[in-house]
Design goal:
The protein is of the alpha/beta class. The protein has 2 domains: 5-157 and 314-449, 3-Layer(bba) Sandwich (FAD/NAD(P)-binding domain); 164-307, Elongation Factor Tu (Ef-tu), domain 3. It is built from 15 helices and 16 strands. Helix 2 packs parallel to helix 12 (346-363) and helix 4 (98-110) crosses helix 15 (447-455).
């Protein structure tokens, strides 16, 4: 039997974790500081309040986001159930009435006898099993305790990440593989060369592009963490050529000469299925990134798996700290979920909260190996990326086909390839669940069940 578990943080991840433990009869103490201690981004005290978009992304199972939702449905996610119960029209996406969604999630958790919701700030990490799901705006009062358990050098406070593109969309007839001065055993980078005219046009587009405005609580320190590529460009026409786009040590095989400027792409994983734009952390809006960075030679047909971001975001160096069940390697009683673990996105946060809870369930079962989901599933591939010590440098990531193991044999065509990823992952997850009776869904919720919880007397 598992003793009482403390879940710190009542956002998407913490709410999912508390529910998964509570429906299995495991006592949970869910600590949420709101509304007693307000957050600079939230407006209510409801659990799981969405602070940005009300869209949970695509619901098509032949997309990575839709594939994850299908998996969460099979695993009995309460966040997904509440989202479906309070969905609003959004084409092929799953979007929610954010107020009704958060109220429903709160009511479901309040209705569980095993879950005690405590309002107030957590200033330290308690004894016993703990799931830390304090999100990107982790309160400064908890930071010293968090730094103590993970190490000050393994905790970040700003998410300054460059865009990541799918390898299949990179034009290899334009880009060339080479490391500077041919250092290393192999050509570790793909290089997108620019002549003077192309470079000048790129700088003009970069300087004119629309940017995301930092929130008041971010703007004081954000640019001290990492300089956005557009800010480097503002320092002079050639600033990028002497910075992240310097062409020295590289020879374009198409011309036999050094290019005027070069954008380097570095592999994001060992399978070389995704590449990041080196040094291109940015505060441009997503549409502007697609337009401006899509004009880089070789990237016209590239699919952006993740756009660059710069915002306040507390997260740990998961690949060095966490096991596959999201427990700390140094202290397995502590698990980290949600954006604090680097899983970017609403449903990704729910998924990590679910995994953290099931990890505790599995740990309380005699003679069972630690929880580890198959890496060909959407959720398993995301966790494999986040907890692989070879993932470096680490930046938060949402689910995408680029972090999944390549198909064998390869499949041509974007739609056909996506369908193959989805079919493979679905089949493997079903087999895995059949072999894991200790993790079986106890009381799956549907729209009717969610509304029954909401209607129950307090």
């Amino acid at each position: 039997m598992v003793a009482r578990v403390t879940v710190i943080g009542g956002g998407i991840a913490g709410s999912e974790a508390a529910y998964q433990l509570g429906i299995r009869g495991i006592p949970v103490r869910l600590l949420e500081m709101r509304p007693d201690v307000p957050s600079p981004a939230h407006h209510s005290g409801d659990l799981g309040e969405l602070v940005c978009s009300n869209s949970l992304k695509s619901d098509d199972p032949n997309t990575a986001a839709g594939m994850l939702k299908r998996e969460l449905g099979e695993l009995g996610s309460v966040v997904l159930s509440c989202a479906r119960a309070h969905a609003v029209p959004a084409g092929g996406a799953l979007a929610v009435d954010r107020t009704a969604f958060a109220a429903a999630l709160t009511r479901v958790l309040e209705s569980l006898p095993s879950v005690e919701i405590v309002r107030g700030r957590a200033d330290s990490i308690p004894e016993g099993d703990v799931i830390l799901a304090t999100g990107p705006l982790t309160d400064p009062a908890l930071a010293p305790s968090l730094s103590q358990v993970v190490g000050e050098d393994r905790l970040a406070f700003f998410d300054a990440a460059a865009p990541i593109v799918d390898a299949d969309g990179i034009d290899r007839d334009v880009c060339f593989a080479q490391s500077r001065y041919d250092k290393g055993e192999s050509a570790d980078y793909l290089n997108c060369p620019m002549d003077r005219e192309t470079y000048e046009a790129f700088v003009d587009a970069l300087l004119a592009a629309d940017r995301v405005q930092a929130k008041d609580f971010e703007s004081r320190d954000l640019f001290h963490a990492c300089m956005p590529v557009e800010e480097i460009a503002r320092r002079g026409r050639d600033a990028l050529r002497f910075g992240p786009m310097k062409p020295v040590g590289l020879t374009d095989p198409a011309t036999g000469r050094r290019a005027h400027a070069v954008v380097q792409l570095r592999a994001e994983n060992r399978a070389n299925t995704a590449y990041n734009l080196v040094g291109f952390q940015t505060n441009l809006t997503f549409p502007e990134q697609r337009r401006v960075f899509g004009a880089i030679p070789g990237l016209a047909g590239a699919t952006f798996l993740r756009y660059g971001v710069m915002h306040r975001n507390t997260f740990v160096d998961a690949p060095r700290l966490l096991r596959s069940d999201l427990s700390l390697r140094s202290d397995p009683r502590i698990r980290i979920a949600g954006q604090l673990a680097g899983t970017e996105g609403y449903m990704e946060a729910a998924a990590s909260g679910l995994v953290a809870a099931l990890g505790i369930v599995r740990a309380g079962t005699a003679a069972q190996a630690p929880l580890s989901l198959p890496d060909v599933t959407a959720l398993g591939s995301l966790l494999a990326y986040a907890t692989d010590p070879d993932t470096a440098p680490y930046q938060p990531m949402h689910v995408n086909f680029g972090v999944m193991p390549p198909l064998d044999p390869p499949v041509r065509g974007k739609r056909e390839r996506a369908a193959a990823y989805s079919a493979r992952g679905g089949a493997v997850l079903r087999s895995w669940l059949c072999a894991a009776p200790d993790l079986a869904v106890r009381t799956p919720l549907d729209d009717v069940a969610v509304r029954t919880f909401e209607a129950a007397p307090r």
